[in-house]
Amino acid sequence: MTAKSEHGPNLIELRIESIPQIFHSLDPSPFRERELDQNAEEFIVSWARELPSHAPFKIIVHLPEDQLAKPGARDIAPAITQFFSYRADLTSLELKDLFRVGRRSLLIGATVLVTSMVVSQAIAANLQSQPLARVVAESLLIFAWVANWRPIEIFLSDWWPITRRRNLYRRLGAAEVELGRGLPARQFHQSKAA
Asked: Is 140 helix (H, G, I), strand (E, B) or coil?
């Protein structure tokens, strides 16, 4: 398989020996609705990550002449785009779920922070002369910030990789997919028999 980008679309090429090789072998669905084989998906995604993000993708699937003539060949292009569109939808749900967890965690963390600050101030005001009071007050504030660690992490950094993956899947779902004759410079090999 190869990938290249020269002023036109980002090109990803793969060669398969038979139509079923690109699909998950245990999926009984018709070709158009089948899942891609994990190796094929990983190959396409890994090349797509390496290509510039300013141009659309074009995927060329090279098949032997006898496989191109089979009726299932025409279902490869829609199967690939539907697969990645579905993956984009799943990733969007994952992102929504992460933000839902983040909002709940933030609500809990903010409640703990406010409560800890109020209790800390009360302890500091009422027990000024006792050394243990300062330790307890500071410990409450540390506990409050620890309670906010996860929501801060979610809203500052955790959502970026999921968004990048979703956007990549969307671009692959919108890719132009063609069937080709002949061989690309490199070949996609599947680890199991096709």
From this structure: helix
Q: ∠ at Cα 110 (104, 115), nearest 5°?
A: 130
What residue spans define the domains of the chain? 2-89+173-180, 95-164
Strand-pair partners of 14: 61
Say how many C-beta atoms besides its own lie within 10 A of residue 114's C-beta: 11
Q: What is the pLDDT of residues 30-76, one digit of tens each?
A: 545 568 888 889 999 999 999 988 889 999 999 988 888 888 888 89
pLDDT in tens, 75-118: 899 999 999 999 999 999 999 999 999 999 999 999 999 999 89
State pLDDT tens for residues 49-60: 999 888 899 999
Q: Are 56 and 9 in contact (CB under 8 A)?
A: yes
What is the value of pTM for the model shown? 0.76
Check: CB of residue 72 under 8 Å from CB of residue 23.
no
CB atoms within 10 A of CB 1: 22
Which tokens sit at 100?
Answer: 């839902």
Per the CB < 8 A criterion, the answer to whether 187 and 76 are in contact is no
